[in-house]
Each structure stands twice: as structure tokens, then as C-alpha cells.
Amino acid sequence: MGTNSFIFFGLLLIPLIVFLIWVIKQDKKRNYIGLVLLVIGIVIATYSIIKLDKKYLDPQNPNTATEASPKSSSFK
């Protein structure tokens, strides 16, 4: 992952962790099912973002950048 990806994760991950801690403290019944599902979703999303980022930043495969961008059209 590039430096920009680490900055992006840092800017989103730190407030998310603070929010999760606040949600845990607000829960009077201590029902953790929703929180566990949320954390599992975050882990799956993080894993897939890292895998996609690695695929498109791979220097061994220069054609991946052109696959993601659509072909430009001319309006002449």
C-alpha cells in the first residue's frame, strides 16, 4: 500500500475506533451481537480494500491501470 492509503486508513480508522468505544460505553444491556457484526464487516471491507489496492499498485502488471479506466470517446 502507498503512503496515501495509510493516511486514508489513519484518518478513517482512528475516528471509527473512538466511535466504537463510545458505542460500547453507551450500551446499557451489553448486547454485543450488532457490534461483533459491525467489526466483522469492517475487517472484511479492510481486507478487500487492501487486496484491491495491492492489485492496482502492482508494478509487475502495468495493464491493470488501463483496465479500470474507461475508453475515452471523441465527440467530433
TrEMBL record:
<protein>
    <submittedName>
        <fullName>Uncharacterized protein</fullName>
    </submittedName>
</protein>
<keyword id="KW-0812">Transmembrane</keyword>
<feature type="transmembrane region" description="Helical">
    <location>
        <begin position="6"/>
        <end position="24"/>
    </location>
</feature>
<keyword id="KW-0472">Membrane</keyword>
<feature type="compositionally biased region" description="Polar residues">
    <location>
        <begin position="60"/>
        <end position="76"/>
    </location>
</feature>
<feature type="transmembrane region" description="Helical">
    <location>
        <begin position="31"/>
        <end position="50"/>
    </location>
</feature>
<feature type="region of interest" description="Disordered">
    <location>
        <begin position="57"/>
        <end position="76"/>
    </location>
</feature>
<keyword id="KW-1133">Transmembrane helix</keyword>
